[in-house]
C-alpha cells in the first residue's frame, strides 16, 4: 500500500475533534461508550440555543455529553446528544451512509466489559497480520471498530 503524505498548510485541519450521535436510548449508549469502551466523560451539560437553524432539529434545549480521553481533550471525542424538549433527530438523519467509529484499545478487555454490560451485538473478529481486530454494534446499530493498541 502506498500512502501519500499531504504537506501541512495553515488551512489544513489539525484533527477531527468529535463525532456527534443522537442515540435512541441515551443511557444505554452512555454506558456502552463510558463503561464498555472506557471513555471518560469530559463534559455533561444542558445547552439552550437555536438548534433548528444550526442543525435542522426541532429542539431548543439539548443535553450534550462529550466522551474521550482526558489526556487528549482536543481530539477523538464522541458527543452524545439528548433532546430535552422532545425534538427529533437532525435533518440528515435520513441519509443512507455507512458510518463507524474506531478505537485503539485492548480489544479483549473491551469486549469483556461490553459483554458484562449485556451490550454485545453482532461481534465480528478477524485476524490481521500481527493482531486481532473486532467490530460490534453500539445500542443504535452503529458499527464500532476495535483495533489493538499493540499495532498503534
Explained architecture:
- With 152 residues, this protein is of the alpha/beta class.
- The chain has a single domain, classed as 2,3-Dihydroxybiphenyl 1,2-Dioxygenase, domain 1, CATH 3.10.180.10.
- The chain is built from three helices and eight strands, in the order E-H-E-H-E-E-E-H-E-E-E.
- The strands form two sheets. A four-stranded mixed β-sheet has the order 1-4-3-2, covered by helices on one side.
- Strand 3 (61-68) and strand 4 (77-83) form a beta hairpin.
- The two termini are 17 Å apart.
Topology:
Blueprint: E1 18-21, H1 26-37, E2 40-48, H2 51-55, E3 61-68, E4 77-83, E5 100-105, H3 107-116, E6 124-128, E7 131-137, E8 143-148
Parallel strand pairs: 1-4, 5-8
Antiparallel strand pairs: 2-3, 3-4, 6-7, 7-8
Helix pairs in contact: 1-3
**Into how many domains do the coordinates divide?**
1
Order of helices and strands: EHEHEEEHEEE
Low-confidence stretches: none
Structural class: alpha/beta
Q: How is the CATH topology named?
A: 2,3-Dihydroxybiphenyl 1,2-Dioxygenase, domain 1
* Backbone shape: globular
Within CATH, the superfamily carries the name 2,3-Dihydroxybiphenyl 1,2-Dioxygenase, domain 1
Q: C-alpha Rg, in Å? A: 17 Å
Strand content: 25-35%
Instruction: Give the biggest sheet.
Output: 4 strands, mixed
CATH class: Alpha Beta
| Helical coverage, percent range | 10-25%
Identify the strand order in the major beta sheet: 1-4-3-2
Amino acid at each position: 500500500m502506498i500512502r501519500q503524505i499531504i504537506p501541512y498548510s495553515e488551512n489544513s485541519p489539525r484533527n477531527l475533534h468529535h463525532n456527534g450521535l443522537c442515540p435512541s436510548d441515551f443511557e444505554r449508549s452512555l454506558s456502552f461508550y463510558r463503561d464498555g469502551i472506557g471513555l471518560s466523560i469530559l463534559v455533561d451539560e444542558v445547552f439552550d440555543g437555536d438548534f433548528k437553524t444550526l442543525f435542522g432539529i426541532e429542539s431548543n434545549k439539548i443535553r450534550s455529553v462529550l466522551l474521550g480521553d482526558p489526556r487528549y481533550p482536543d481530539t477523538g471525542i464522541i458527543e452524545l446528544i439528548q433532546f430535552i424538549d422532545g425534538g427529533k433527530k437532525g435533518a440528515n438523519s435520513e441519509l443512507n451512509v455507512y458510518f463507524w467509529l474506531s478505537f485503539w484499545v485492548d480489544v479483549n478487555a473491551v469486549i469483556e466489559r461490553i459483554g458484562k454490560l449485556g451490550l454485545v451485538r453482532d461481534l465480528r473478529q478477524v485476524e490481521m497480520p500481527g493482531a486481532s481486530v473486532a467490530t460490534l454494534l453500539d445500542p443504535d446499530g452503529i458499527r464500532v471498530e476495535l483495533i489493538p493498541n499493540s499495532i498503534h
